[in-house]
Amino acid sequence: MPTLLALLHIVGCVLLAAVFLAPAGVPTLVHLLKGILREYSLLMLLPALLTALVALWVAHVDGARWLRWGTAASALAIGVLAAWPAVSAWRLARAAEIPLDLREYFRPLVGARPHPSETVRFAAFEERELHADVFLPETATARARPAVLYFHGGGWRGGERGYARAWADFLTARGYALISLDYRLFPPATGVKAPGDVKCGIRWVKEHAATYGIDPERLVLFGESAGGHLATLAGYTEGDSRIPSSCDEGDTSVAAIISFYAPSDLVTYAATAPAALEGFTGVPLQGHREQYELLSPINHVGPRAPPTLLLHGGADSVVPLDASRALAARLAQVGVSHALFTLPYAEHGFDIWDGGFGRQLARALVGRFLHQHAPVG
Length: 377
Fold this sequence. Notes:
- The protein is α/β, with parallel strands linked by helices.
- It has two domains: 2-97; 118-373, Alpha/Beta hydrolase fold, catalytic domain (Rossmann fold).
- Helices cover 44% and strands 14% of the residues.
- It has 13 helices and eight strands.
- Helix 3 runs antiparallel to helix 4.
- The radius of gyration is 23 Å and the shape is globular.
């Protein structure tokens, strides 16, 4: 019995470690589980403790030496993996003077999320209608409020504007309007159309700002993954005729940009995701380098670019951390106000789980950035 139990614990620990350390290209379910394990790594202390107890039991009953060492090593390995993300998050939180809440940490993975105050169609094209979900603070104010315009991720081919619901309570409680906007997905290819749709959404918000009590001069773009790519591309190419608005021409300037784990240089990213980029652009990199360069936000950074907040996971296996590092370096080179925060342990999409340390850190950093560049009141 002790031998069988020890073997089961060793196998279980090996499986946990394999998921925790899974490389890029693993099936979607494994990637999802990897992200959960890293955000809620402290829960792995339980199997680590149970395996340690089994190791003591095996030693007490004079089990085989390899079994004693195997269970002990398994317990130690899982304990180290459990502690690393939490210690990394704590160190970043301490450096940024952000409190982490253990009670929040043990909330359900995905809790109740609000529905929009209103959903409206803001544009229509032959192949698709584009809609906007509008979330407004409950408290009325005499002065026009700033707004966050959200663009979802999904590799330019998937995702939905409903992802913004995860941020709605946080932003509206602080007095911000939140507007989550559609953009066209591929297929067919949407290379120039998608950032054009982002600009179309900005124009629509500016034109209807009075309706929602929004200050058109205090708009902040917020995108995650592919949405972060489009937000930075649209924000950095305001007035560039090569990437025009899909609908009304006019002012598409914004006060600031927030981008989470997004590609910044499509030429470089083509080595990681060639199929996705060929679907998005409609052409392969070979023979069409200029198109990839045009659609790379890093190539459009200038001294007048909006202040930018970048967040990225150090263990991101979908979009390498170097994407945000390179963009931050370019912003620094031209003197644009910016900040890059790296979560060393975190995978792609680290902020989607409600109580995780990644989510807590992201909320605090976003709140500070908004207060600095688009304050309420």
